[in-house]
Write a sequence for this structure.
């Protein structure tokens, strides 16, 4: 016992407690505060190194000490503003001894360090003792407002790293036992009114879905809460975190849909249509139309959505095609970056592949955008990695368009030949051998 008790003898755990100031740290912080936090950060790094060395010299460590070690080390296992590269390395060195932690160990970490903080602001739609969805919100109509007061958990910024580490290392068979300890903090992050915390909530939810059985999600009603919260994330459109939030929320939502609905079912189709039609086309593209970073993020999500929606995407062609070709067409009002154009081109190509029966009606609009974008790239004279990727996608668009028009609009090839003949040297790399493609029986 002497050796076990001595693990923290040469250090103070207070030196590893992340200061509350990090929760509200921004560019307006006072110089004195920044200097003090920098000093703490370096001292914490030294303390972690000392802790690592002490643990290496111990043959056994008590359960309580292991719980504390995991909590403090996991606090530095991430890319948070209080984490130096050296401190992250030291923390990860310590945590290598717990790659497959016992369920009891994770339970103690969550019960002793996480639950007490989040219990001060219980989520109104979650039973904190079972992790189940409540039949009605606690506190009535004002419950959602009441739980946003105080928010002591925001004064413990390290808890995200701790919960994340536990989620990444929980055994799939132990998720149900720890469900009541995971769900309250995840839903609290996810339903916060600040986009930065929502991003953290989405990442935690994504990690949860890696191990959670679909039956457990449905049985506890958490599938409904997650779905609602992830859709709500797509209404936060005017924040610096919005692009990251959109990409993460859509990807996680698709994973949730895949887990909780059957392939080909009406439920899956309806949820995918709601995501694409209501959340992206009917919300993001309307209310964030002047924010290219947000629109670009939504376009990055299109390939994965239409990949699941498949031919059902055709019902949205009237909204998708004009939006996706717009960034590709040079115009005074169009200042799309190459990255934005690339996202648009990839999204457009994904739509062409699943909507073959209807694409011939849009051949003029699509080919015009691809050809004009190709000319613009040639005139710019830039040939970096991003431009090469964009050229590759433009070729894919033309190939997919040619394949779609083989039987439904064979006149497309004569139209394309007329354009290519205007400048063979310029357009031949774009069309390649499309004009003599054997799969069209030409």
């Amino acid at each position: 016992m002497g050796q076990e008790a001595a693990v923290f003898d040469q250090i103070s755990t207070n030196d590893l407690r992340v200061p509350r100031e990090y929760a509200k740290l921004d560019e307006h912080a006072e110089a004195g505060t920044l200097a003090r936090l920098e000093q703490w950060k370096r001292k914490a790094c030294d303390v972690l190194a000392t802790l690592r060395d002490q643990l290496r010299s111990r043959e056994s460590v008590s359960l309580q000490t292991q719980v504390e070690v995991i909590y403090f080390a996991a606090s530095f296992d991430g890319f948070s503003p209080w984490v130096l590269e050296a401190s992250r390395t030291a923390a990860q060195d310590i945590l290598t001894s717990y790659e497959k932690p016992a369920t009891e160990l994770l339970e103690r970490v969550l019960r002793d360090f996480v639950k007490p903080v989040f219990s001060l602001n219980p989520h109104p739609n979650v039973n904190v003792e079972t992790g189940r969805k409540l039949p009605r919100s606690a506190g009535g109509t004002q419950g959602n407002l009441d739980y946003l007061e105080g928010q002591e958990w925001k004064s413990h910024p390290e808890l995200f790293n701790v919960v994340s580490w536990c989620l990444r290392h929980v055994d799939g068979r132990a998720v149900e036992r720890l469900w009541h300890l995971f769900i309250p903090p995840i839903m609290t992050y996810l339903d916060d009114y600040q986009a930065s915390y929502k991003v953290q909530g989405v990442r935690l939810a994504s990690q949860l879905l890696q191990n959670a059985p679909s039956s457990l999600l449905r049985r506890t009603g958490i599938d409904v809460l997650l779905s609602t919260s992830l859709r709500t994330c797509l209404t936060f459109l005017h924040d610096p975190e919005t692009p990251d939030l959109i990409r993460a929320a859509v990807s996680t939502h698709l994973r949730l849909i895949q887990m909780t609905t059957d392939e080909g079912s009406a439920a899956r189709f309806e949820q995918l249509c709601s995501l694409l039609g209501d959340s992206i086309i009917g919300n993001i593209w309307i209310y964030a139309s002047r924010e290219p970073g947000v629109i670009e993020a939504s376009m990055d999500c299109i390939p994965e959505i239409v990949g699941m929606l498949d031919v059902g995407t055709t019902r949205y062609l009237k909204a998708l095609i004009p939006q996706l070709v717009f960034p590709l067409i040079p115009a005074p009002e169009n200042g799309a970056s190459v990255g934005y154009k690339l996202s648009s081109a990839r999204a457009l190509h994904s739509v062409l592949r699943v909507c073959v029966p209807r694409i011939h009606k849009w051949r003029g609009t699509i080919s015009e955008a691809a050809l004009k974008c190709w000319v613009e790239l040639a005139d710019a004279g830039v040939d970096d990695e991003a431009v090469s990727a964009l050229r590759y996608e433009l070729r894919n668009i033309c190939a997919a368009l040619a394949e779609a028009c083989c039987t439904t609009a064979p006149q497309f090839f004569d139209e394309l030949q007329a354009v290519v003949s205007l400048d063979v040297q310029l357009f031949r790399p774009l069309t390649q051998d499309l004009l003599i493609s054997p799969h069209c029986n030409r």
In short: The longest strand covers residues 126-127. The chain has 21 helices and two strands. The CA atoms of residues 191 and 229 lie 6 Å apart. The beta strands are 126-127, 132-133.
